[in-house]
Specification:
mainly alpha, 146 residues
Length: 146
């Protein structure tokens, strides 16, 4: 099947594009916590656990054009995305925050940012996980030729 235009570009450079998304996500989380002083909650830490290694792994995979790592990176993104989705739902559905309330530190349902009434930090993380997943899924069947 011949790919043209944007689809072919994404398929060819999926590792590089996913790496850039992971770098922006890691940089954004560090900016929010270290520059703006937002203390991460427990769920934010779990999301970081699934995102931070990807900046390193995707960088190495991009440099080597090694698409074999895609099968290892997809589960990290899917699990991290599920955590982000739950975290976002906990922020937007008040009753959900009562199911498993945070007992120590920052409450997980606290909104540090709420741009346009719906954009929060967990939604930004979810977008990064979904975008990386789509890019990796798109590039998973491409041959490993340089």
């Amino acid at each position: 099947m011949a790919y043209t235009g944007f689809s072919a570009f994404c398929k060819k450079y999926c590792l590089y594009l996913a790496w850039v998304v992971s770098l922006v996500a890691v940089g954004g989380s560090l900016y929010f916590s270290d520059v703006l002083g937002f203390v991460p909650c427990k769920l934010c830490w779990f999301q970081r656990i699934f995102m931070y290694p990807q900046a390193l792994l995707l960088g190495m995979a991009s440099y080597r054009n090694d698409r074999n790592l895609i099968s290892y990176l997809l589960p990290l993104n899917i699990i991290g995305g599920c955590i982000s989705l739950y975290h976002y739902a906990e922020q937007k559905i008040p009753a959900l925050a009562k199911v498993l309330p945070c007992t120590q530190g920052v409450p997980c349902n606290q909104d540090y940012i709420n741009w346009l009434g719906f954009i929060t930090i967990p939604l930004l993380a979810l977008c990064a996980f979904v975008l990386i997943t789509c890019l990796l899924w798109m590039g998973r069947s491409t041959s490993t030729t340089r």
